[in-house]
Amino acid sequence: MNKARIKICILLIMILAITGCVNIQKTNYEIIINETVNSRVHVYNTYRNGYKLYLPHGLYVDDSNEYNEIIRSSKYKYYLYIDVTSYLSKKNNSYSIDEDSYYSILINSGDKKGYLEINEKNNKYLVEIVYNYAKIEVMVDKKDINEEVTNAMVVLTSVHYNDSVLKNLADETTLNYKDENVDIFKSKSNGGSEKSNFLEYVEEYDPTEDELPDYDLIK
């Protein structure tokens, strides 16, 4: 068995330890976050110009555009945004706990900061996680929150940036269109006026209050 396979096996064991297999629904969000953030396993299966990451089994990239990825599982669609500008400037924005949300917690690990926030929307739950200069949003059923938080955290913690490539891209003005610093931490929790991209998407395609469309069928 080569080193890559050994690392993948270790990662799978780690995920099983985090989730407790069939007891995943009983796992505390903080435990999921702490175990993934503190993991020292580094494996990758998805490569981009300037960064690479790991997608857990069952997840695959449906669409990729610049630093935005649409990732799918058998049930859900994840929206991943890589904030290269903040990474290059090493800018960590502030975030405050939102007492009105279903769940809200800060994530701090050395120089990497972020948050997990979960909000209810038409009997679904919007999971929004920022960490490691990247952000994932996914709308899920309540019974699947723990599993999707685990998947999202595995992806976010696995993101590894290639400094030399990204600096070269910045020097070549490839990233100039991002001069306007995008604050991926901005939310109603810290007084930001911008809504989640996912919520804007929901409002655009869901004008009613009572019905939630099948997002996977919307083109």
- If helices are DSSP runs of H or I spanning 4 or more residues, what is the number of helices? 6
> Helix fraction?
25-40%
* Helix/sheet category: alpha+beta
Rough outline: globular
Characterize the largest beta sheet: strand count, sense, and whether it forms a barrel.
Answer: 7 strands, antiparallel
Element string (H = helix, E = strand): HHEEEEEHEEEEHEHH
How many E-type strands?
10
CA-based gyration radius: 17 Å
Oligomer: single chain
Average pLDDT rating: 77
Q: What portion of the residues fall into strands of 2 or more residues?
A: 25-35%
**Parts with pLDDT < 50 across at least 5 consecutive residues:** 17-26, 205-219
Terminal-residue CA separation? 42 Å
Strand order of the largest sheet: 3-4-5-9-8-7-6
Could you walk me through the main structural features you see in this protein, from its secondary elements to its overall organization?
- This protein is of the alpha+beta class.
- The chain has helices spanning 3-19, 29-37, 84-89, 145-158, 163-171, 197-205, and strands at residues 46-48, 51-53, 60-65, 68-72, 77-82, 103-109, 112-121, 124-131, 134-140, 160-161.
- A 7-stranded antiparallel sheet has the order 3-4-5-9-8-7-6, sandwiched between helices. The protein has a 3-stranded antiparallel sheet with strand order 1-2-10.
- A hairpin with a 2-residue loop joins β7 (112-121) and β8 (124-131).
- The protein is globular, with a radius of gyration of 17 Å.
- The model is unreliable at 17-26 and 205-219 (pLDDT under 50).
